[in-house]
Specification:
The structure is a single chain. Helix content is 38%, strand content 31%. The protein is built from four helices and eight strands. Strands 2-1-4-3 form a four-stranded mixed β-sheet. 18% of the residues are buried. InterPro entries: T_IF-3_C_sf (IPR036788), T_IF-3_N_sf (IPR036787), Translation_initiation_fac_3 (IPR001288), Translation_initiation_fac_3_C (IPR019815), Translation_initiation_fac_3_N (IPR019814).
Length: 153
Amino acid sequence: MRLVGDNVEVGIYTTKEARAIAEEQELDLVEISPKADPPVCKIMDYKKFLYEQKKREKALKSKATKVVIKEIRFGPQTDDHDYEFKKKHAEKFLKEGAKLKAFVFFKGRSIVFKEQGQILLLRLAQDLEEFGKVEQMPRLEGKRMTMFIAPKK
């Protein structure tokens, strides 16, 4: 096997010799590339390697942005004052960088007013055009019509 690592002369050794060198340095013999010809092994502190790898993954995970989805619920016959109130909240959510899930919930026989619900959501999308862009147009799923708006960067 080919042996690499710190404080090791790079070369081809037998398995016994490689193990002896690793034990002499009180480190681990780790196979890096088993498919290579000859296989490549490295002498290193494996516990320290795992620790640093976890640390790197944790740092990357903390830098990743978490997508927050805020919901706003309307009825098919939401009046203007309630609409404006909810629109202000939607603006605030989009300015904070959260995605917005606006939906119209149809209770009982109000499902007859599908067009009103769609008009309401499209009006909301038009009013929030400067703060976010529509990710998914209004779509009816069971008793609710849903629309997603993503914030503009």
